[in-house]
Amino acid sequence: xPTVFSHALLPLAAAAALGRKxxxxxxxxxxxALAVLPDLDVIGFRFGxxxxxxxxxxxxxxxxxxxxxxxxxxxxxxxxxxxxRAFLFLFASMASHVLLDMLTDGGQGVMLLWPVDGTRxxxxxxxIRVSPxxxxxxxxxxxxxxxxELLLIWLPSLVVAGTMIAAxxxxx
Length: 172
Ligand SMILES: [Zn+2]
Hints:
The protein is an all-alpha fold. The protein has one domain (4-171). The protein is built from five helices and no strands. It has helices at residues 4-18, 25-36, 64-77, 84-102, 140-171. It is globular. 33% of the residues are buried. It binds zinc ion.
């Protein structure tokens, strides 16, 4: 996984890029929470659910079906998430987690198409250094991860969001 901060960043940057009228702050925060949620599955390691199990890390919780169900559950309990745009934002936020994981160079792939197919997928291009599990940043590996995420996730996200914010201000 990339670090929890980078997973949360994508929905927040997208919300900033799209503007508060399209993505109000509470929706942006909900998107960030959903983008972080799939990695709670690391708890499975404690109970012996490794990569071999669909219920372990990067399994069921990293599928598009799970993102769809989780977004639907949020919409069920939260009226603000019921518009097609809000629902799409929440789904895309959670799906962005899976996409980022598919770009990492370690661990196992994600069960993108579960329950249809149990294959664990990576993208052919995996430039992001996988994060050590347990947030151990201040090791050589941890610092490499932070460097790779700053360059490949934070920099492009902030440039895109900044450009779109500037364009919106110019139009206003
Ligand atoms: Zn993950």
